[in-house]
């Protein structure tokens, strides 16, 4: 066992030493190409020295690594590194079968065979193989399926792939190869397009190709737009307890709209009492159910899709409710012989119409009691109170919705108000260190309380002051006791105040002035205005000096400013904004400087926003679009408010989204004069107003006609249309309008009920047609224009057609003349023949009588028996005239001539 282990260690040592030293007798080179995941055989052949088989070791290693990844020695399990375990097996004689080829297997592989019973310096067999691993392309970065981007911005589409050989990336747009330009760059891992245009929108394809395959990935680039409110919410009035609904429809691309609702500028989600009764539908509609009187106010809909600034619109909810009593304290006191008020605080929407009262559980008609009237806030005013007005009262307010109930019972007492029986003098002048007593007393029912206080809010000297009844005594007067004092007389009915002045004198020659009192400071961004009350002047005319400095933990030096004589207010300028200052006022007179007032701290503000400039207003029938230029914002983020009103009406205001310098006010009245102004504001509050702009809204326009069709027919041009789909503004009538480049617009119409028209005899030319819809106020809107070319007839064609028409007309006239002539001849001949036949009959009848009646058949003639001529003519017609007519051509008849 020890021998075998020794041999194994020796074999490992020989193998490593041989590879490290790099000695070789014979080296073969091979190049093998394999696809990723395939199996491959790595060839390695060797020969025994002198043709005699001896013990040997086979090893495989990568060229850039010193340790073999595969070692084989007969009788022992092979050594396989982790990366190749389960994927390699030995083939005869020393070849290696490698399965599931990986990209990491690519490179130079060395095979070596060592013979153990030979000296280490003996040459050995090696093979050198270059393994190429090919892999089809695979994406490691892909562009998104859909990209929304605004025109004018930059577009970046990432696309990268791996594979062997390294794949080539090609970009296509709308199935056409994409070419680089100044705006379009094809980078190794992305496509970049700057200043995006409308023509850049479309379908893009990234293709990765190498010898082993081709893969594609598509991406659609769509023009994006910020959210826009199409149907804004409208003002609505509801009765408390009913449901309120605000519609807020919007459109955007992409369509991932989000809706937020604010109540008086506060998000509804931050108002628990309101949030519990609200529901926001997916389309943005806000429901409030049930409504409460506290819900009245502005409701703002804010819509966004993540692109650009959100758009907002607001509407006012007016919640009406029955009149109710909000405040009715008990007990209440009325001053005897003076005017008094019985409080009945009423809240009502709409305002209450009247209040009924009861006294001692009986109706108390106010109109029947002289000197008693109802106030506008619901309370009861009694102009001169007497003991008869004492009692138990209730009030009940009413409006159009009725009443929410009667107040609780109010117990009203009539009491005598306080009155001063002893009042202090107007001024008390005494010496420093002396003692002073100021009297004050009064009466009333109930007995009033008497209090003393300093007018400047300071405290009375506790150790040196005392009160006995209503009298105030101050011992050992100090200089700071100088000032004004107030005596307060107070009971349940009223409070009375009177004041006096204590002046402290040092000696007969006077003293320096006392410190000013009641110092107040009002600051702006760069200034501070101080005001104070004068104290005792020491017997001389006094003036003042203002001391001020920046307050800090360190000691900053004081700066001074003299105040003009007699002034008790002064403004300091050129201060730093947003800085805390300390101020105090010192008085002085001819004897020198007096004492300082108390020190007052005040902070200057930031610069307030200046008024916007260049305000313009563009109106329509129901809206007005305002735009303006920003001014100095005072170093703070600024926003705006639009104020607008009609004549003699209170101002309405509307918040503008932050950063916006234009905004549209909706739901205005048509044909109405309005006033507009814009106010800026920043973190410090409201700023200045712009100048007021007057503008008038236009008349309401109907929506334009739809589906206008213009057709060229054989007998003219046919124009048809359909009424507007939206007919919130009714259409009174339509006009069909047309024009050419050289002529102004002309029209046909008006058409009140027709929706089509056939225009005839239109000269040739290039025409444009449109249909206008008019309201009853004569305001119109137009459909889109439609072009139509109406072709004319050339002069040559016109001339030839005229000649042809003339020839054809002449021929037809000639034929008609011949036909009429023939007809006339035939008619005349027929008439002449009838006359000739009649004449012949008149002639032939006597001849026949002569032939037949000249001799009697029975003897001598008898004239009396001869029949009348007309009878004989009839008989001749029946018997003999036929023969005469048949032989007419043998008779000698005068010839007739006819001329046409």
Notes on the structure:
There is one protein chain. A hairpin with a 2-residue loop joins strand 52 and strand 53 (592-596). It contains five helices and 70 strands. The chain has 900 residues and is mainly beta. The longest helix is centred in the last third of the chain and has 59 residues, at 795-853. The termini are far apart. Strands 1, 3, 4, 5, 8, 9 and 12 form a seven-stranded mixed sheet that branches. Strands 20, 23, 24, 27, 28 and 31 form a six-stranded mixed sheet that branches. Helix 3 (795-853) packs across helix 4 (869-878).
Q: Calculate Rg over CA atoms.
A: 61 Å
Helix amount: 10-25%
Strand runs, count: 70
Q: What is the CA-CA span between the terminal residues?
A: 162 Å
Ranges where pLDDT stays below 50 over 5 or more residues in a row are 1-25, 793-798, 847-866, 872-900
The DSSP helix count reads 5
- What's the pLDDT, averaged over the residues? 81
Inertia-based shape:
flat
Write the layout of secondary structure elements.
Blueprint: H1 2-21, E1 26-35, E2 40-42, E3 56-62, E4 70-73, E5 79-80, E6 88-91, E7 95-98, E8 107-115, E9 125-141, E10 146-149, E11 155-158, E12 160-164, E13 168-173, E14 176-177, E15 184-186, E16 190-193, E17 202-210, E18 213-223, E19 225-231, E20 236-239, E21 244-246, E22 249-253, E23 258-263, E24 266-267, H2 272-275, E25 278-280, E26 286-288, E27 297-304, E28 311-327, E29 332-335, E30 340-342, E31 345-349, E32 354-359, E33 362-363, E34 372-374, E35 380-382, E36 391-398, E37 410-415, E38 419-422, E39 427-431, E40 436-438, E41 441-443, E42 449-454, E43 465-468, E44 471-474, E45 483-490, E46 495-505, E47 517-523, E48 528-533, E49 543-550, E50 559-563, E51 569-572, E52 580-589, E53 592-596, E54 600-603, E55 613-619, E56 624-629, E57 639-646, E58 652-656, E59 662-665, E60 673-682, E61 685-689, E62 693-696, E63 706-713, E64 716-722, E65 733-739, E66 746-751, E67 756-759, E68 765-774, E69 780-782, E70 786-790, H3 795-853, H4 869-878, H5 881-886
Helix pairs in contact: 3-4
